[in-house]
Amino acid sequence: MNIIQATTTELDKAAKLFDDYRVFYDQEPDLEGAKGFLNERMAGNESIIYLALDENNDAMGFVQLYPSFTSVGMKKLWILNDLYVDLLHRKKGVAEALIERSKELSRSTGAAGLVLETQNENHPAQTLYTKTGWIKDNMHSNFFWKTE
């Protein structure tokens, strides 16, 4: 397995996984929309996307991280916003490898750390995060305001 930082050269591979990820979260398939969204993130240096590639250079999974800051800690912070592994490549250590590469990004940029959120019902993801050293935050509540 090879973990690379995706560029526009890998846009099609990343967009296919991103579209599958969105479908997993009950969104309608929209491959062209996925390409456009990721292309904008790449062009504007607004996110970091890592791809896990197999020996044939086929994409197995991806992670997308957005930069943020912690005002209290006065440091950069990375939001692990998206993590997805293709169904054919689950249970092969792909997610763990992508998380480890995300941790390396955090260390190399002097960030305070990584944050993420997942659905309460997504127990496999929660097990993965606990296994890879994440600590569940029981001190804070997340809220969302939706623009109509």
Task: Give a description of the structure.
The chain is of the alpha+beta class and 148 residues long. It has one domain: 3-Layer(aba) Sandwich (Aminopeptidase), CATH 3.40.630.30. Helix content is 34%, strand content 24%. It has four helices and five strands. A five-stranded mixed β-sheet has the order 1-2-3-4-5, with helices on both faces. Helix 1 crosses helix 2. The longest helix is centred in the last third of the chain and has 15 residues. The protein starts with a strand and ends in a 17-residue tail after the last helix. The relative contact order is 0.14. The model has no long low-confidence stretch (mean pLDDT 96).
Major sheet size, sense and barrel closure: 5 strands, mixed
Number of domains: 1
CATH architecture: 3-Layer(aba) Sandwich
Oligomeric status: single chain
Strand line-up across the major sheet: 1-2-3-4-5
DSSP strand count: 5
| Class derived from helix and strand content | alpha+beta
Strand content: 15-25%
